[in-house]
Structures are given as structure tokens and as C-alpha cells.
Amino acid sequence: MIDEACRLFGTDPERGRLYLLRLAFEVPRNIDDWERQLSLQGIALADENTADGFCAMSPDAFPVDQFQAACRTTLGPHTVRFYGEGALVEQEDSEEDDIDDGETGKRISAYVERTTDYTVDQVRAIRSLIANADEHIDLHAYAGTGKTHIVSELLAHDARHFTFVTPSAAQAQALRSRLGAGKLRVLTMIRFANLVAARAFEQRALSTDFKPVWQKSTASLADIASVIGVQRIGGYSPTAVLRIAFEGINRWCRSSSIDLQPYHFSRIVMGAMIDATAYIAAAEHVWRCMFSAKVQKQIKIVINVDHIGKWLAQHRVKLPIHWGTIVVDEGHDMSAAWKSLLSDYAGGVISLGDPNQRLIGTAPRFLQGKSLEMTQSVRQGQAVELLVNGAISLDSTGVYSSLFAGAADHATVTSFYEAWSDVPQVGTRLFGSPFTLLEEALRLIDAGARVSPP
Predict the structure, then answer these.
(1) Per the domain annotation, does 358 fall within a domain?
(2) CA dist 367 to 137, 318, 327, 340, 414, Å?
(3) Mean pLDDT, residues 324-338
(4) How far apart are alpha carbons 224 and 285 in whole angstroms?
(5) Cα 234 to the center of its chain, rounded Å
(6) Cα–Cα–Cα angle for 436, 397, 385, nearest 5°?
(7) CB-side exposure of 151: number of CA atoms within 13 Å?
(8) Helix H or strand E encompassing 18
(9) Would you say 320 and 344 are in contact if contact means Cβ atoms under 8 Å apart?
(10) 329 and 191 part of one domain
(11) What is the pLDDT of residues 52-85, one digit of tens each?
């Protein structure tokens, strides 16, 4: 803009003056508005020390390319050594980088080195994952810190056998497309649960003649209650008792409790904490029916992944070592029963997740294992640090030891509003007080919105 104005002044001073006046009217009035306008164009302000250093280099020729490179501080090149095919060949006390293939006699690499851009958090985490191949590791990482990136690097370049467990079929297919087949086995959590349960059944490790499998049910609660003989409790009909039993079972399966307890029914039965004996007995009856081949032949009862995990944990099932290193995506959503089963696994396990994203309860950790953290974002700029860390501070669990850090070389737009009427209707809203949350919920309901409880 200044260059254009100077050219105009040289040829037509009056037009140049008018041009500068128009610019003065259009440009932001303060530094915050300047930063916002730049952010909207994907431009972030440089660190002051970096800018001063380059400005001092030359008053005439500004080294733009070097300046841009110096400002890219979030990611940098790091060399990581992965296990190669040679590491899988049994050798007696060999520390060589190349090992003889016993069949062909050729030298095969024990290690493969690759140089890629990582954050400091990422390279620290991936090196730890490689060095502790047989450990159980909880990798806690905020969204946008690069969990998928480092795991993709590990799965793509490390020669060891991995089984990757994802929450959904879409995620499994995306990973297969990205990495190809190789030594990687990609399964959904449902498929993984079915395979573990089937093997336990075949080895007669379970107490009934029913092979557990994830399944839906089209039968009504009334029909199920009638077939399995659910009895009325007080003013609750058999159908209502069955609904209460399922709710209690679901909460129990998500917990680390060995047996059903009164607090599993506290949200749905008034006075459950005083006396829940009848409801516990009803739920135990329903639980036995869920894993009875005779009952399941009469009427199909729903069985989900958490149910299977609890059933396997009750029977102290051991996972076979043929899975290799198990990598679980969205590990924060895993039930305590599945976490316990994986804690007893003889091989390595890597659980990827962000405990703050778990909606109900707290994310279980391995009984014995390591914990790693990644808090440096590669997706959000520093402008969101105050918002994110302020929101996280409202959580009393304190999962992370370090604060969330935005990327200095990434532009993120933030907006501040003085009135609720100015806030966009679409988006996630965080409240520092349950009273302001309730007030906003009532306002939305009055406006005709449908509100679901958390």
C-alpha cells in the first residue's frame, strides 16, 4: 500500500494524498483490530525478538525468506530411529545396525532413520514410544497436537507388528488407505471385542455356553421383560424395572466396580442410595440372561462393547500376545474393564486420547505404565491460549501438568462480544458457572430451541 502511495505522489501528489486518506479511513484503529484483520488473511505477528533481529540486519534489503523460516518455530526437522526388519531377527547379544538374514544371508537393517518435521512434544513422545516398545503407555494429548501424525509415522516406518483399534469403521478405513496393509492390522473396537470374546469362548474361559458378540435388539422392553421374567418393584412396572436394570448395568460396565452397587442406580431411582437391594437383584438377573444362550435364542437382548469387556474382565480373560503392540485410538472413552484387560496384556499397549474429552466419569489409566503428554498445538494459534486454559482450569481433575500452548506461527481469529445477542448461534459455549449455563438454557428454550442435557 505504501509503495503504491509513493508512486502516486511522484506522478500526482493530490491523488497520492487522497489515496493515503482513504487507506487511513479503512485500516484498523488499534493493534488488536490490526491483528484480527491479519489473522483473517492467515497472517500471524512475528515474535518481537525475531523481528528486531532481522530489522537490524539491513535498513535497505529485508531478507524475507529467511525471516519467514525463522518464524516457523512450532515444527522443526528431527531425526528419529525406528526399528527395522533386522530388529525382528533373533540375534544373540547383537548391537549391530545391520544383521544377517538367516535364510538369504543378506544384511538387513536393524534400524531405519527418518527426518521429518515434529514439534518438541511430538519427537519426545515418538522416541519414548519406540524406546518403550513393550510398555503400557497413556499418551494424553490435546486435540490438534499431532497424535495422529506421530502414530502414523510409527505405524508406517517401524517394522514391528501393530494392531490399531479405532472407535469407528470410517476411521479404520481412513487409516488403511493412508498406510496400506503392511504389518498393520486395523480393527474397530467392536470387531476387536468380538474377536477377543470368541477366542475366550473357544478356550472355554467363560462360564456359560454363549459366545458373546456385539449385537443390537429389535425386541421391545416389554417383550424382553416378559420372556426373562422381570418382576414389578413397588410402583415400577416390569418394563420400567428392565429399563432401570439396563441403566444400572451400563453405568456399572463403565465403572471399575467389581459388583453392582447402589450408586449405579442413583440417577434413575429416588432413594437408591438408601436401599437398592431389589434393583441390584433385578439387574443381576438381567445380566445373567444377557449371556445365556437359551435366553438369547428366545429373544435377542442388546450387548455392546462395554458389556463384553465387563464379562471378559469378570472371567479374568488374558489377551493373546499375537496382537503385537496394540494401539487404541480415543483411549479416553475406553471402559475401566477394557483398560484392565489391556493392563494385563503381555505385549505393548499405546492408548491415545485426551482425558478432558471424556463426557462421563474420568478416563481410566493403566495399572502400571508410563504417561506421556503433548500440549503444543499445531492447529490453533496463541490467541486461543487464554480461552482454552481458562476452560481447562474449571476441571478439578487436573490431568495435564503443562498448559495448552498455541502455535506462534499460526493465525487464529478471536472475537469478543459484549452482548449475548451478538454471539453467533452456531458453536460450542463454555460457562464458568452452572447458573449462567441454566440462564442461557432457559433463554434458548423460550426461543424454541431443543436442549439436551449433558
Answers:
(1) yes
(2) 10, 15, 17, 7, 41
(3) 93
(4) 12
(5) 43
(6) 65
(7) 29
(8) helix 13-26
(9) no
(10) yes
(11) 777 777 766 777 777 777 777 788 889 999 888 7
Q: Is 439 helix (H, G, I), strand (E, B) or coil?
A: helix
**Distance in angstroms (rounded) separating the CA atoms of residues 89 and 200:** 30
- Closest by CA to 366, choosing from 345, 387, 390, is 345
Position of cell 511522484? 10
- Identify whether the C-beta of residue 187 lies closer than 8 Å to the C-beta of residue 167: no
- Whether residue 383 is contained in a domain is answered as yes
- CB-based contact 138:370 (threshold 8 Å): yes
Cα 308 to Cα 291: distance, rounded to the nearest angstrom: 9
Nearest to 306 by CA among 346, 333, 266, 344: 333
Which DSSP symbol is given to 46? P
Strands (E), 287-369: 325-328, 349-353
Q: Which of 174-183, 275-284, 433-442 has the lowest mean pLDDT?
A: 174-183
Q: Which three-class secondary structure string do you get for 151-170?
A: HHHHHHHCCCCEEEEECCHH
Same-domain check for residues 265 and 333: no
Residue 444 identity (one-letter amino acid): L
**Which residues span the domain enclosing 368?**
117-195+323-407
Identity at 202, one-letter amino acid code? E
Q: Which amino acid is residue 152, in one-letter code?
A: S
CB contact set of 406 (below 8 Å; sequence gap of 6+): 377, 380, 381, 382, 383, 384, 385, 388, 412
**Of residues 162, 159, 137, the one with CA closest to residue 349:** 137
How many Å apart are CA 92 and CA 90, to the nearest integer?
7
Residue 287 lies in a domain: yes
User: Residue 117's beta-bridge partner residues?
Assistant: 77
pLDDT single digits (tens) 191-206: 999 999 999 999 999 9
